[in-house]
Amino acid sequence: MSKATIFKPSLLDIAPNAVEKLKSLKLEECDDSLKLRIFVTGGGCSGLQYGFSFEGTVVEDDTLISRDGVDVLIDSMSLPYLVGSTVDYEQGLMGSRFMVANPNSQTTCGLTLIHISEPTRR
């Protein structure tokens, strides 16, 4: 009889490119307490959309995820949609952006999820 494999999903992974960009944005703002908030909103036909903002405070229903000196906040309503995802940052000819790679996402109406480029400060 074979032994069962135990799988522990991560809440959210923060890719090295995203960590480095978040560190540089914190330096630009001269505020080490800033945290990246990732949230999910309804997007109609295109499904869910991801949003990003910078915040300095954690509220009661937030989940705080830390990696290599940066913090990410996810509210309780958005968390179930983001479990197992990876936050990354990419730069290319078309510009730069934070993005969420979500293995659980699906496309609808021929569109994929929308990724908002830069976090805004709330």
> How are helices and strands ordered from N to C?
EHEEEEHEEEE
The DSSP helix count reads: 2
Strand content: 35-45%
Major sheet size, sense and barrel closure? 6 strands, mixed
Count every beta strand, where a strand is a DSSP E run of 2 or more residues: 9
Shape, principal axes of CA atoms: globular
Radius of gyration: 15 Å
Helix content: 10-25%
- Can you give the mean pLDDT? 81
Please report the distance between the alpha carbons of the first and last residues: 55 Å
Flag low-confidence runs: 110-117
Keywords:
122 residues
Structural overview:
It is a single chain. The protein has helices spanning 16-29, 79-82; strands spanning 12-14, 35-42, 48-55, 63-67, 70-74, 85-92, 95-101, 114-115, 120-121. The protein is globular. It is built from 2 helices and 9 strands. The strands form 2 sheets. Strands 2, 3, 4, 5, 8 and 9 form a 6-stranded mixed beta sheet that branches. A 3-stranded mixed beta sheet has the order 1-6-7. β4 (63-67) and β5 (70-74) form a beta hairpin. By secondary structure, it is mainly beta. The termini are far apart. The model is unreliable at 110-117 (pLDDT under 50).
